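Support request from a user on the community tier.

User writes: "When I paste my C-alpha cells into the form, the page sometimes reloads and wipes my input. The last time it worked, I copied everything first. Here is what I submitted, just in case something in the input itself triggers the reload:"
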C-alpha cells in the first residue's frame, strides 16, 4: 500500500499489521490505550521487562545479598551495559560506559579534550545545539581560558555543516555538536564533520542523546573521538537514568578524567592517598554507580538489540515519512509549518511542526484530546516517533485530533503561561 493511499484509520491499521516490528509495542506498559504518546524523544515508555528486573535487584540483590552484590555483578554493570549500548552506536567493546548525567559526561570529556590540545583556544559548536551543552562548553571555556565560537544555522532547521567545516582551523581544539538536533531533528553527517576536525588537528565530541536507539550511528566508521548520550529517551531507561560516554579505544590512555574519583582509581580498595587512574574506559568513572538506575537501563537496550538497529531505523523512516504525508495532506493548509528536514537521511525520529499558536495547540492536545507531544520554543510542536512502540494508526489518529484542535479552535481555551514541563 502506498503512503498516499493510507489516509484512513483502516489503512493505517493495515500498515501496522504488515510491519515486522509492530509486535514490540506489546513489550511496553501501555496503561491508557486511548493516549497517543508522542514524547518518547523526551522520556521513553516503560518496558515490561524493566519491572521484573528492578524487582530482582531490589528484592534479591539488595534485599537478600546486600553488600555482597557489589562482587556479584554490581561493579561490572556500568561496563556490561555500556558494551550493549556500544553495539547500538557503532562502537567497540570496552569503549562505552554508563556514568553520571549527560551534562557531567560532556563536562568531563570537554575538559579532557581541551587538556589534550593545550595550545588551541577555540571550541566550535552551532546554535542548534542543546542549550545545556552550550552551558557546559561555556563553563569549560571559562575554567580553561578558552572561547566558544557558535556557528549560526541559516534557517534554524538544517545544521550549518559547510560553515562549521570552513570555520575549523589550527586554533580549534574541539568541535562539539548534537548529532541529531533537538528542535528540528536534523542529523549531521558525523564522518564529514569529524574528518574536517581531524584534518585541522582538532578533536570531535558528539552528543547522541536524540540519536541513540533511533538513528543509525557508526562511531567507529566516522572515526569519532568522543561521544556522550542519555538513556531515558529512545533507550527507555527511565526518568533521570544514567548517561553513557564513549572514548575511542586508542585515546583512552591519552586522556585524563578531570573529575577523578575512587571508582576511576586503578585499585579503589587500596585506599591510596594519591590517585592513579584505572586502565581503559574505567578511568572516566568518578563516584559510586547508581545500581537501581543502571539496572533499569538494560532491558530497554536489550529490546533494541533484539529488534536490530537497521530494522529500527527503517521503521522510524517509514513512520516519519507517513507522518509527513499526513502533514502535507491534512495539516499544511491549517497554518502549520514543517520545521524538520524533508530528507530522511538528514532527519532523526521526531518531526517538528511550527504554528503561531503552537504552545496553546500543544496544551490543547494534552488536555483536551489525549495526545502527548512536547513543545520547544518558539513554535515547535515536536511529534516524537519511538520506533518500537509508535504505530501508524497512532500517527493517523494524532493528526486527526490535531486537526480538530485547530479547526474547532480548542486551543483558545488555554493560556500559554500555563506550560511548565512537556
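"...and here is what came back when it finally went through:"
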Amino acid at each position: 500500500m502506498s503512503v498516499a493511499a493510507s489516509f484512513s484509520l483502516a489503512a493505517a491499521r493495515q500498515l501496522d499489521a504488515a510491519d515486522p516490528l509492530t509486535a514490540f509495542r506489546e513489550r511496553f506498559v501501555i496503561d491508557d490505550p486511548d493516549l497517543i504518546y508522542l514524547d518518547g524523544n523526551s522520556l521513553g515508555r516503560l518496558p515490561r521487562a524493566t519491572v521484573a528486573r528492578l524487582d530482582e535487584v531490589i528484592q534479591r540483590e539488595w534485599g537478600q545479598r546486600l553488600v555482597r552484590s557489589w562482587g556479584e555483578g554490581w561493579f561490572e554493570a556500568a561496563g556490561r551495559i555500556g558494551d550493549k549500548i556500544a553495539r547500538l552506536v557503532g562502537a567497540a567493546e570496552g569503549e562505552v560506559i554508563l556514568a553520571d548525567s549527560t551534562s557531567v559526561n560532556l563536562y568531563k570529556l570537554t575538559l579532557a579534550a581541551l587538556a589534550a590540545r593545550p595550545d588551541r583556544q577555540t571550541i566550535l559548536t552551532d546554535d542548534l545545539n542543546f542549550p545545556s551543552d552550550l552551558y557546559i562548553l561555556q563553563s569549560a571555556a571559562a575554567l580553561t581560558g578558552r572561547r566558544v565560537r557558535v556557528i549560526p544555522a541559516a534557517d534554524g532547521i538544517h545544521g550549518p555543516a559547510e560553515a562549521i567545516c570552513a570555520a575549523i582551523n589550527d586554533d580549534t581544539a574541539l568541535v562539539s555538536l548534537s548529532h541529531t538536533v533537538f528542535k528540528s531533528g536534523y542529523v549531521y553527517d558525523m564522518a564529514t564533520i569529524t574528518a574536517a576536525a581531524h584534518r585541522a588537528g582538532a578533536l570531535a565530541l558528539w552528543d547522541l542523546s536524540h540519536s541513540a536507539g533511533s538513528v543509525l550511528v557508526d562511531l567507529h566508521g566516522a572515526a569519532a573521538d568522543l561521544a556522550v548520550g542519555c538513556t531515558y529517551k529512545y533507550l527507555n531507561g527511565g526518568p533521570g537514568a544514567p548517561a553513557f560516554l564513549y572514548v575511542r579505544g586508542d585515546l583512552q590512555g591519552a586522556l585524563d578524567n578531570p573529575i577523578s574519583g575512587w571508582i576511576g582509581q586503578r585499585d579503589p580498595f587500596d585506599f591510596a592517598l594519591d590517585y592513579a587512574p584505572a586502565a581503559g574506559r574505567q578511568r572516566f568513572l568518578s563516584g559510586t554507580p547508581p545500581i537501581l538506575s543502571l539496572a533499569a537501563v538494560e532491558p530497554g537496550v536489550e529490546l533494541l538489540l533484539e529488534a536490530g538497529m537497521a530494522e529500527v531505523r527503517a521503521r522510524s523512516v517509514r513512520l516519519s515519512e507517513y507522518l509527513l504525508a499526513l502533514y502535507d495532506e491534512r495539516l499544511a493548509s491549517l497554518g502549520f509549518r514543517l520545521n524538520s528536514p524533508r530528507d530522511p537521511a538528514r532527519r532523526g525520529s521526531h518531526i517538528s511542526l511550527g504554528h503561531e499558536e503552537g504552545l496553546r495547540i500543544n496544551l490543547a492536545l494534552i488536555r483536551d484530546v489525549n495526545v502527548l507531544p512536547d513543545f520547544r520554543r518558539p513554535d515547535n510542536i515536536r511529534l516524537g516517533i519511538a520506533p518500537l512502540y509508535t504505530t501508524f494508526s497512532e500517527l493517523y489518529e494524532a493528526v486527526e485530533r490535531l486537526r480538530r484542535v485547530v479547526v474547532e479552535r480548542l486551543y483558545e481555551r488555554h493560556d500559554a503561561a500555563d506550560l511548565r514541563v512537556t
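Agent notes: The reload is a front-end session timeout and is unrelated to the input. The chain has eleven helices and 13 strands. Residues 3-30+308-418 form a domain with the Aspartate Aminotransferase, domain 1 fold (CATH 3.90.1150.10). Escalated to web team.
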